Amino acid sequence: MGQGREAEHGHRAHPGDQAQLGHKASSGPRAHFHPGRGDFEGVLGLLAGLTMSFGRGRSARLAAELAGVRAGDRVVDVGCGPGRFLREAAERGAEAVGVEPSGQMRRIAGWRTPGALSGRVRVVDGTAERIPLGDGSATVVWAVASFHHWADPEAGLAEVHRVLQPGGRLLIAERLARPGGWFRHHALTWEQGQDLVAQVERAGFSDVTAGRHPLGRVQVLAVQARRPANPVPG
Ligand SMILES: C[S@@+](CC[C@H](N)C(=O)[O-])C[C@H]1O[C@@H](n2cnc3c(N)ncnc32)[C@H](O)[C@@H]1O
Predict the structure, then answer these.
(1) Which of 149, 163, 215, 221 to mutate to test the pocket of ligand 1 (most atoms within 8 A of CB)?
(2) Nearest-CA neighbor of 151 among 47, 17, 41, 42?
(3) Residues 91, 85: contact at Cβ < 8 Å?
(4) Is-above-0.70 flag for pTM?
């Protein structure tokens, strides 16, 4: 997916460079600051990755249905972790690329990808703030349970906008936190979801919506949007 254009990518300034140089990250609905690299490494990363690679089928199907993934799509999964959502996209006939800062997660995603899907799944080293893929190379970008880890959401959204082709679909899904509930630092409240809607609009996306979707005993907050299509020349 977009491999021919990846080389060009190294020649341009990345919106995420500011965050990597230590400038203050932008404000937004991020619930929990994580610098990205260094998390999910070592033994804890291995345990987290193995835990997340099982029992995520319903979440993966929900993401694929919300994003309308079908054969021919080029899906970029930002913060793909152990890759369950990549496999779901590939099973539906899409090409899927995971962008993942943790080497441990990238290794697990490789082990967990069956040979039959390996031609349609790959995982690259990167972050939301620095996606090593070409402009307009994706028809779908999703980030499932990763947005709350992004070091600089504004830079990440700018990168996602760049990588999506005009008309492409964005899905950001997080567990919906109940105010005062358990584990709320790894989830977004409905109010934070509304802030995220405004931030996604400011990043240049259109048709931005937020929805709640029941998933077993939890609810998923899904923010969906499109990169506007190029205007038809008059
Ligand atoms: C809770 S895991 C979710 C993994 C996967 N999306 C899933 O739902 O199974 C969060 C993932 O985000 C990744 N991550 C952390 N910082 C990131 C960043 N700045 N950009 C992209 N991904 C990041 C982590 O390495 C980790 O794999």
Answers:
(1) 149
(2) 17
(3) no
(4) yes
Q: Is 84 helix (H, G, I), strand (E, B) or coil?
A: helix
pLDDT confidence of 3, banded at 50, 70, 90? very low
183 token code pair: 């584990």
Query: Ligand 1, closest atom to CA 79?
Result: 22
Atom index in ligand 1 nearest the CA of residue 49 equals: 27
Helix (H) or strand (E) holding 222: strand 218-226
What's the confidence (pLDDT) of residue 53?
73
Ligand 1 centroid–CA 107 distance in Å is 14
100 lines ligand 1 (CB under 6 A): yes
Biggest CA pair distance of the chain: 58
Q: What share of the chain is helix, strand, coil (3-state, %, to 5)?
A: 35, 25, 40
Over 60: is that where the pLDDT of 25 sits?
Answer: no
Q: Is the CB of 161 under 6 A from ligand 1?
A: no
Per-residue pLDDT at 19 exceeds 50? no
Q: What is the pLDDT of residues 30-73, one digit of tens each?
A: 544 344 456 787 878 777 777 787 778 999 999 999 999 999 99
